[in-house]
């Protein structure tokens, strides 16, 4: 969205400048995520050392979120995956977001959940340079969702927590249902999907989708 935090702000600026709405006014940019880890400060210190602080590598699209230089190995009963990126900042609870195919390699079963919904999730071992941790819960496959501000939600006619269907154009396009609206005043407008689902419909970071309720 550039200097604008919401679609509503962009539209208001266009009106002020005598602009007009284009066909992109109802489309939403796409954010694609690979497997990654969120850590609590306590777990971070166990894995990297007492008092350790995450090292920012680059900012992400959502405000105050960033990819870190640090990575970990995650291990299950059947196998392990190395160099899984940590995202910052630290959280109250550790969480590992993986792909469906990762479950087969690791030998675990992970539910599809929104970030932070950890009750009933499976555990996993995290291996760092200074130690390891066996998490009792926290592994999930991310539920596809759309981040937006409250003004964006009003513009699109949706509410926080609502499930919608989105349309994807292109030769391998189609629709994805059960897309959850996540609306608050600290988000940037973006459709979040993991690499497996993005590849299935040939989505890229430059793609845009539309809501078709």
Protein described:
There is one protein chain. The chain is of the alpha/beta class and 213 residues long. The protein has 2 domains: 7-31 and 144-211, Barwin-like endoglucanases, CATH 2.40.40; 34-141, no CATH class. The protein is built from 5 helices and 14 strands. The chain has helices spanning 7-16, 41-48, 100-106, 150-156, 195-200, and strands spanning 27-33, 36-40, 56-59, 66-75, 80-91, 95-98, 112-113, 122-127, 132-142, 145-148, 163-168, 174-183, 190-194, 208-211. A hairpin with a 6-residue loop joins β3 and β4. It starts with 6 loop residues before the first helix and ends with a strand. Residues 14-23 have low confidence and may be disordered.
Strand content: 35-45%
Structural class: alpha/beta
First-last Cα distance: 23 Å
The backbone outline, from C-alpha atoms, is globular
| Total count of strands | 14
Sheet with the most strands, sense and barrel status = 6 strands, mixed, barrel
Number of helices: 5
In total, the number of domains comes to 2
Using only CA atoms, what is the Rg?
A: 19 Å
Give the topology string: H per helix, E per strand: HEEHEEEEHEEEEHEEEHE
